[in-house]
Amino acid sequence: MATVTFEGAQRWYPGADKPAVPGIDLEINDGEFMVLVGPSGCGKSTTLRMLAGLEEVNAGKIYIGDREITHTPPKDRDIAMVFQNYALYPHMSVADNMGFALKMAKVPTEERRKRVEEAARILGLTDYLDRKPKALSGGQRQRVAMGRAIVRSPQVFCMDEPLSNLDAKMRVQTRTDIAKLQADLGVTTVYVTHDQVEAMTMGDRVAVMKEGILQQVDSPLRLYDKPVNLFVAGFIGSPQMNLIEATAADGHAKIGEYLVPVDPTAAKTMQGRITVGVRPEAWRLVSAEQGGLPVQVTVVEELGSDAFVYGTSGVEGTPHNIIVRVSGRDKVRKGETIHVTTDPENVHVFDTDTGERLSD
Amino acid sequence: MGRTVRYLLLLAFAAFFLLPLVALLDFSTTDLRTGDRTGAAWASLVEDPTLTEAIRTSLLLAALTVVGMVVLLVPTMVWVRLRVPRATRLVEFLCLLPLTIPALVIVVGLSNVYAWVDYLVGDSPLTLAFVYVVLVLPYAYRSIDVALSAIDSTTLSEAARSLGAGWTTVITRVVVPNIWPGVLGAAFISVALVLGEFTVASLLNFDTLPVVLVLLQKSDAPASMAAALASILFAALLLVGLSLLDRRPTSRRN
Questions:
Q1: Which of A42, A126, A294, B97 has its CA 20 to 30 A from that of A318?
Q2: A349 forms bridges with which residues in the sheet?
Q3: Which residue(s) pair with A7 in the sheet?
Q4: A106–chain B nearest CA distance, Å
């Protein structure tokens, strides 16, 4: 078991005009499940590969526990990596694949067999030990890849989008399996994904990255409730947070003619152009007489328990799309105009120019 | 296309390929004076010292060439693919070069080199293996390159390294087993090429099988034909054998 520490770790690909990761500082606690999330090209995989030793570190340092491993060859780092395409060895049986790391470590045959069988039992692979990876389904291959990592009992698991090649149903199931397994084993895990749902559901903490720079490292709920900037606000949450351009006006945010109440902290600091963020579920339906933002409904997604209403507001300068979550029993129809409002504590205020959060 | 047409085509092709072989067999087993059947020509394959020596030389050359090619090419290609992909074009160009230079031109250049080879390592015909390793490069390169492209060697090697394997282990335990069919293919092509190469051997005055066959044709035609047929059959057997080897289940439980 170990902590992982990045100290200004930089990766600059030869020939690139700027570093892929200019310098990342991140502390991962012992036994923690840390998810690195961000759009493609944000440097999350590069960061993980620096930890795994598959990418050279151009500046800064990386520690596992107290041991500096910045320039240690990957084989001596005591990590195990799980890849998106699993990278199982096609010429070896499942048992040999899972036992590979132990063979490298010159573990005696008998103990190797025992540990492989133990991992296979945990993962439900006992019946497949003699098969070749070719003869397995996608989900089973994924489990073999996990098994290969588990058998090694490393200090750190590095997982690079291990669920991306699975179909939607399998992904949801495997997601919980991995989270449970990690909790049981208590091995520090760094998990890379571009899927914010995976990040939110699996991570103890989530690190949101953009263009090689950490935006926010926090628990999933804190990320959702207090995004530090516009990028995090827009990235975390599905459907997306409504981000509406507004101007600061005397303790309120002014969207066209409508005044949106904001929290006291934001009211004090905001000025000029601001962006107001409201989660789809934070809107309340009100009648036309009570005022509120009019929304012309274009699409209604009925999910049974609730429904997402997509619409455009009649107000000049507001975004094309406003998303409102309503109860599945509120009959909202396409073409209608609804009125919505919200409460100050549900309004996130951001500075439009810097993207910084102004609300509490 | 009808069944009949297909069979007719098959028959036509079979005739095209097999007739010359049947003719070879017929000619090499006929006593030219009496017209009777005789095994004398085939017996000479193992009895005629010139011929047996040439066969031995060619087989040894084939083996040496295969070993040289594998030792030279496999690690180079794996290393280039994993570590210096920038050099891919250069290596490919160098490997294809022998194909673009006519054999005669190569020999003219080689005769100078071989004066030195002669001086340094002796005048054994086996020194031809140096040239043959170069001559088989284009074909062997293709075969191994296809096999390497078929596997995700980069990710496989990264997986192995993160699981505690060093570079040597990565190459011997992970990459090579997966490109084995390609290496076998390269080996086979090399053997076939060495057994059939005439120009270089003849012009450098080495007595390999093809050279002796041509000489023999003038003195003892049936024996030459027998040897030709035998070398064709040997190559065919080798091909079948290698393809069977390739298909054999490779699983080994420890």
A1: A42
A2: A276
A3: A61
A4: 10
Interchain CB contact of A116 with B (< 8 Å): no
Q: How far apart are CA B157 and CA B163, in angstroms?
A: 10
Nearest to B157 by CA among A52, A40, A45, A59: A52
Q: What is the DSSP letter of A20?
A: S
Arithmetic mean of pLDDT, B98-112? 85
A80 residue type, one letter: A
Per-residue pLDDT of B5-55, as tens digits, reads 999 999 999 999 999 999 989 988 888 788 888 888 888 888 888 888 888
CB-based burial, A155-178: b 16+ in 10 Å, e otherwise: bbbbbbbbbebbeeeebeebbebb
Say whether the peptide bond before residue A239 is cis (omega within 30 degrees of 0): yes
Please list, in sequence order, all residues whose beta carbon lies within 8 angstroms of the beta carbon of residue A252, skipping any fewer than 6 positions away: A259, A260, A261, A262, A267
Give the mutation candidate from A13, A48, A75 for the B interface (greatest B CB count, under 10 A).
A75
For B116, other C-beta atoms within 10 Å of its C-beta total 9
| Cβ separation B158–A54 shorter than 8 A | yes
* Neighbouring-strand partners of residue A280: none
Give CA–CA dist B98/B121, Å, rounded: 24
Q: Do A75 and B165 touch (CB under 8 A)?
A: yes
The beta strands (E) that lie in A180-241 are given as 188-193, 205-210, 213-218
- Residue B155: alpha-carbon gap to chain centroid: 32
Amino acid code (one letter) for A36: L
Helix (H) or strand (E) segment spanning residue B28: helix B3-28
The tokens describing B100, both together, are 């673009």
Look up residue A124 and give its DSSP letter.
T
* Cβ neighbours of B178 in A, within 8 Å: 89-91
Residues 6+ positions from A71 with CB-CB distance below 8 Å = A57
- Beta strands A79-82; A156-160: pairing state: parallel
Q: How far is the C-alpha of A182 from the C-alpha of A157, rounded, in Å?
A: 9
Q: How many CB atoms lie within 10 A of CB A344?
A: 17
Smallest CA–CA distance from B161 into chain A, residue: A75
Q: Distances in Å between the alpha carbon of B66 and those of B71, B136, B248?
A: 8, 9, 21
Report pLDDT digits (tens) over A299-356.
999 888 899 999 988 666 666 688 999 988 888 888 888 888 888 889 999 999 999 9
Nearest Cα neighbor of B236 from B192, B200, B190 is: B192
ipTM of the complex: 0.79
| pLDDT digit string, tens, across residues B233-245 | 888 887 787 777 6
- Closest by alpha carbon to A348, among A250, A247, A242? A242
Q: Is the peptide bond before B75 cis (omega within 30 degrees of 0)?
A: no
CB contact under 8 A, A91 and B177: yes
